[in-house]
Amino acid sequence: MLKKMMLIAAMAASLTGCLSQSHDRTDNVNRQPNPVSSKGTIDTVKPIRLNAVSTAIRLFVNGYQATSAPKIISGVTYVPVRSAGELLHKIVSWDAATKTVFINDQNQNQAKPASNALKLIVNGKQANVAPKILSGVTYVPVRAAGELLKKYVTWDATIRAVYINNQMHNKVIYFPAVRYPQTAAHMKSAMKRGESPICTIDRGGADENREQSLSGIPTKEGYDRDEFPMAMCAEGGTGADVAYVKSSDNRGAGSWVGNKMESFPDGTRVLIVIDTNSGAVSAPKPTPQPSNVYYKNCTAVKAAGKAPLYKGQPGYSTSLDRDHDGVACE
To answer: What's the pTM value of the predicted model, to 2 decimals?
Structure first.
């Protein structure tokens, strides 16, 4: 029976808020090396830079997809600050008089800054990068958002998605809510009650976790007692959220998850995203980029104002990328 997973279905918005959505495929968040370190987290020294292509970028925060999508501005990826802040259960507020966005862990009186320049202050600390306001929505660079909120930020090049989570993850699976709606609904409600969307695989502890989580909960004919987090996850066991889910739905969901995670070794940290669409979304196809751009050396790249160059961008070559980390002419 299904125990641990995590959600993504949506809510977020501008400086007035909302959210939504997702997909069904196993992805490795380290698939594209350029802005991502070997641990699958954003390199906090380099901002995410991407070519402007026709396919929109999606933002997922702790299992939820924000309806306010990230934007690419001058090659840097920006995320909507209210979406990220509120989905991380932060208090987000705006002071029009001083043009200040505040993000705090709790409601509190704000000291009024002297400057009237647009700024972001997180728990009393001013960011060293200014926000941008586009169509009434305030955005900050994703790298800065991760640092200021002390969260892990990862980038999936295949589906062009940015993830912000409380914990680091190595893999992503997209749970098909359309196929298993009752199980998905339980996952979603458990997530809203504070369960993490990340499952650390621990098959050896599954039996003990199952016994602990189901202790004192009677069986019900035609239904499974669904645990969330799953028993096969280190986060499962005592305190797990348990709900009655129709056996046909829950067992199908358990089989689906088991198949998706079968090849993952114990210790793998899996972000489980709930796909509220068909469960079979294909990876988007970016607009083809010109391939006839050539730079003799990094001096030429810098003279053209294109440094740094990321793998996949026009003019990038391994001869310019001496340390082979996907970023040339840093």
So the answer is: 0.59
Two tokens, residue 315: 């003019």
Q: Tally Cβ neighbours within 10 Å of residue 175.
A: 29
- Residue 259: closest CA among 195, 179, 188: 179
Residue-level pLDDT at 284: 46
Render 279-315 in DSSP notation, one character per residue: S-PPPP-PPPPP-----SSHHHHHHTT--SEETTSTT
Q: 110: which DSSP letter?
A: P
* Cis peptide preceding 308, ω within 30 of 0: yes
Q: Please provide residue 55's backbone torsions phi and psi, each rounded to the nearest 5 degrees.
A: -80, 130
**Tokens at 308, concatenated:** 């740094």
- 151-173 burial, b at 16+ Cβ within 10 Å, e below that, comes to bbbbbbbebbbbbbbeebbbbbb
Q: Are 67 and 20 in contact (CB under 8 A)?
A: yes
Residues 188, 20: Cα–Cα separation, whole Å:
12
Nearest to 214 by CA among 244, 184, 235, 190: 244
The pLDDT of 137-161, averaged and rounded, is 79
* Torsion angle in degrees (nearest 10) through CA of 262, 34, 281, 18: 110
Q: Which residue has the tokens 């709790």?
A: 106
How many Cα atoms sit within 13 Å of 134 on the Cβ side?
15
- The answer to whether the peptide bond before residue 229 is cis (omega within 30 degrees of 0) is yes
Q: State the pLDDT at residue 110.
A: 64
